[in-house]
Amino acid sequence: MSDVPRSIVIDDIATLVTNDPSRGRGAVGEVRDAALVVEDGRVAWSGPRAQAPAADARIDAAGRCVIPGFVDSHSHIVFAGDRSREFAARMSGQPYSAGGIRTTVAATREASDADLLAGARRLLREARAQGTTTLEVKSGYGLTVADEERCLAVAARVTDEVTFLGAHVVAPEYADDPQGYVDLVTGPMLEACAPHARWIDVFCERGAFDEDASRRVLTAGTERGLLPRVHGNQLGPGPGVRLAVELGAASVDHCTHLEPADVDALAQAAARPEPTVATLLPGVDFSTRQPYPDARALIDAGALVALASDCNPGSCFTSSLAFCVAVAVRDTGMTPDEAVWAATAGGARALRRTDVGHLAPGARADLVLLDAPNHLYLAYRPGVPQVAAVWKDGELVSGRP
Ligand code: NIG
Ligand code: FE
């Protein structure tokens, strides 16, 4: 007989965010004086502690808050090099342009697979310690067939949510032949990369890929069995959002510069069985001194909104979803409830996942215990480390309760 307890109850939870409105108050399904039972890596039961079933072992939450692990649906953590000076120059008035991506491409091509993996693992650990239990990871700093493929192989060592972003910018070798680069991305590069990835992404923006090129990339990826997602409307208005909705992408990310027709398109797309989520990356707007997206307008129109970090060395080098929640509440018009939902359940929707982002029975036991009585503290105490413990699939992966 093994001594490992089969079921564990996390007891005396002051506030449990289930993201299941049938279990508690509001869209976040908030239960006060709650408990949660974990069995075989899944949530077996969640609800008021007075009704909790017996379990083999007990963890005392001691009047603190439990939320679902953050689902960060957008990151670029496979890279080498340092762009801190570019950031400093920006803060002294230099505008952000996607041109800096090429600096990271040069450093990434020089780096060994072992160094890229070590860097990605370090950032994954960092994200996990801050409560992220699901993390999407993109390629996009290789831009040759071999370098994109090895970046994806590294990504696949740290996550199941891998995205092929060969169409990040036109590779420097193709500066005079952007069509030729799209041929490469949709031909040999896609062939080599598709087996490593679940998703295909494109940076649909002036200075990167226009509407026609973006459509070609996403269509080729879809035909090869990948699911589409889009970087759009980051640096100015453009066709990214509407293209994402037209092609049934799971998400369109950034959404900083939206026109009324974009908001309408996202609202209509939210009503589909497989919606297109508007994923906001407010850390990027913070770190590039851009205006903030109007989350209030999106939510009021009926769009589905997620929050993600976009952790990357150029436009936003944070891995903290708590920071993104705080900025979203302060500057995009979201309520704290909406922002916490967007960083958990919203991220799950953006990755078309039903097993994460909530804590109803059957969900993965991906949990965060906060050193706080409720989830409002994430925005209320910005910059303060409040993650006490993190479980993934029922296993303690960071901190201690
Ligand atoms: O999501 N927008 C394009 N790509 C990244 C930025 C990458 C970089 O500057 O290195 C983004 O913001
Ligand atoms: Fe990005």
UniProtKB/TrEMBL annotation:
Identify the residues that bind N-formimidoyl-L-glutamate.
Answer: 141, 312, 314
Q: Name one GO biological process term.
A: L-histidine catabolic process to glutamate and formate
Report residues binding Zn(2+): 74, 76, 231, 310
Cofactor comment in the record? Binds 1 zinc or iron ion per subunit.
Q: Does the keyword Hydrolase apply?
A: yes
Q: Under which main EC class is this enzyme filed?
A: hydrolase
Q: In which pathway does it act?
A: Amino-acid degradation; L-histidine degradation into L-glutamate; N-formimidoyl-L-glutamate from L-histidine: step 3/3
Task: Note the InterPro entries from the entry.
Answer: Amidohydro-rel, HutI, Metal-dep_hydrolase_composite, Metal_Hydrolase
User: What family name appears in the similarity comment?
Assistant: Belongs to the metallo-dependent hydrolases superfamily. HutI family.
What job does the chain carry out? Answer: Catalyzes the hydrolytic cleavage of the carbon-nitrogen bond in imidazolone-5-propanoate to yield N-formimidoyl-L-glutamate. It is the third step in the universal histidine degradation pathway.
Quote the protein name from its UniProt record: Imidazolonepropionase
> What is the organism field in this record?
Nocardiopsis dassonvillei (strain ATCC 23218 / DSM 43111 / CIP 107115 / JCM 7437 / KCTC 9190 / NBRC 14626 / NCTC 10488 / NRRL B-5397 / IMRU 509)
